[in-house]
Specification:
The chain is mostly helical. It has helices spanning 2-26, 38-45, 47-71, 74-97, 125-172, 177-241, 247-281, 307-317, 319-341, 347-410, 416-452, and strands at 31-33, 290-292.
């Protein structure tokens, strides 16, 4: 556990010094996030996940303790409790030593010269420069103290976890095997729930990343429409000057252009909001600059799925199903004890039997829900694959139409506006093809997660 805390300490301190060292030039901390690195980045930077990892480590240690209690002796139990007491004392001492650092008063920090050595004042100018340096030092001290606060919090969490381990060991003394098994199942559920929370954050970040790029396709489509409308406006104004169009025709196009510009501005705001949400998941301030890498490109030709095999994997890995399965096992242990301790006609026996039946129904319902979710996600993946194939055919047709339009324009058979329209239709179809491929990637992401246990 000390190794985990040390890694946490180093990571936080490096993070703070990086911010102080590199953010000063532009007053912004730029982070580039690529899709394939989302999970690693979230696990490295999200403080909630880091806290959960400390708790998971403690829960796994407690689980190991309980297994040792089942197979060990009373002296082994006392030895383990003594070791935990030493660990608690160690972290309490570390916590006492790790205190915030007070920044010293520096010359010029108020913009005055009276604190400077004689002969070095210039009526306040030097003091202003000193104030700037003082601000840098203050920022550095603030960053260090933020890191210290994070690490102190990690120590406090660890002390609490160790105390809980100690209490669990003391409580396990004298427990029956059935009671110890129940404790193990409850601990397993706690481990599953924390693991689920961690991966839900990763999935959320991936979903937001893909949503951002979905808006990018909308943005590109609107830009194409705007370009076409602007060319149409120029052409309509020319026709109006020749008496072939009226003012209302020009005004109608101008209204469409205004609407397109408003829609583009709205998309820009939505993208900024999504970037802010991803920043928060990365443990960064919401308004920090974030650059998202390109949308992943999935090859539909290489995409293979196996319904039965993948469904079996989803059932085995499902966090929600495994929690229900453990709950059922707990109720089953209670029922076994009830059969030993109560008459089958007693209220105690009937109540325990009823709880077991409820747990069985709950598990059965959860498994059926999982099958429905898997079936829906599987079919959506196949639909998205078919949609991509169709968009690819349309793209080939649009490319041919553009080629013919260019040929006709060069021969003087169509106008420049018609040729431009064919070009933009091709570019629009290229965008639709990319959108369909992106949709397949989103469906594949959902499919991968349900196989891993997250639905």
């Amino acid at each position: 556990m000390k190794k985990v805390i040390s890694i946490f300490l180093v990571a936080v301190l490096i993070s703070s010094f990086s911010i102080s060292a590199f953010a000063d030039a532009d007053n912004e901390d730029v982070f580039i996030l690529r899709y394939e690195k989302i999970q690693d980045s979230i696990f490295e930077r999200n403080l909630n996940i880091q806290s959960n990892m400390l708790s998971l480590d403690s829960l796994n240690e407690t689980l190991k303790d309980l297994k040792n209690v089942k197979s060990g002796s009373e002296s082994d139990l006392k030895r383990q409790i003594a070791y935990i007491d030493m660990e608690i004392e160690y972290y309490q001492n570390q916590l006492a030593l790790l205190q915030p650092i007070v920044a010293p008063d520096l010359p010029g920090n108020n913009g005055h010269d009276d604190e400077l050595p004689e002969g070095e004042g210039d009526g306040g100018e030097t003091g202003d420069e000193g104030g700037s340096a003082s601000q840098i030092d203050s920022g550095l001290y603030a960053a260090i103290n933020t890191s210290i606060a994070y690490v102190r919090n990690a120590y406090i969490i660890e002390i609490v976890n160790l105390e809980q381990r100690r209490e669990a060991l003391l409580a396990s003394s004298g427990m029956s095997n059935s009671e110890l098994e129940t404790q193990e199942l409850n601990l397993n559920n706690s481990i599953i729930q924390l693991t689920l929370i961690n991966y839900q954050m990763v999935k959320e970040a991936q979903s937001l990343f893909l949503l951002y790029h979905s808006l990018e396709f909308d943005y590109e489509d609107l830009l194409l429409q705007l370009e076409l409308r602007k060319k149409e406006l120029e052409f309509t104004k020319l026709r109006r000057n020749l008496g072939m169009a009226e003012n209302k025709d020009v005004e109608a196009i101008e209204t469409v252009i205004d609407d397109l510009n408003a829609a583009i501005d709205n998309l820009v705001e939505q993208k900024a909001e999504i970037s802010g949400q991803i920043n928060i998941l990365l443990g960064r301030e919401q308004d920090k600059r974030l650059i998202l890498g390109p949308s992943p490109k999935i090859d539909s030709k290489k995409l293979t799925v196996n319904y039965d095999k993948d469904l079996t994997q989803a059932k085995e890995n499902s966090y929600s199903v495994n929690i229900e399965r453990n709950d059922y096992e707990i109720k089953n242990l209670d029922f076994k004890d009830a059969k030993k301790n109560y008459n089958s006609t007693s209220d105690e026996y009937k109540n325990v039997e009823l709880e077991l039946q409820k747990a069985f129904l709950s598990l059965d319902n959860k498994e059926k829900e999982l099958e429905k979710s898997f079936d829906r996600i599987y079919n959506d993946l196949l639909d998205k694959k078919d949609a991509l194939d169709k968009e690819e055919e349309k793209l080939l047709e649009a490319n041919e139409d553009y080629r013919l339009a260019t040929l006709k324009y060069n021969l003087g058979m169509i106008s420049m506006l018609e040729q431009e329209n064919a070009r933009m239709q091709y570019e629009k179809q290229q965008n639709e093809y990319n959108r369909a491929r992106h949709g397949l990637q989103k469906a594949f992401m959902e499919y991968q997660w349900i196989k891993k246990g997250l639905s």
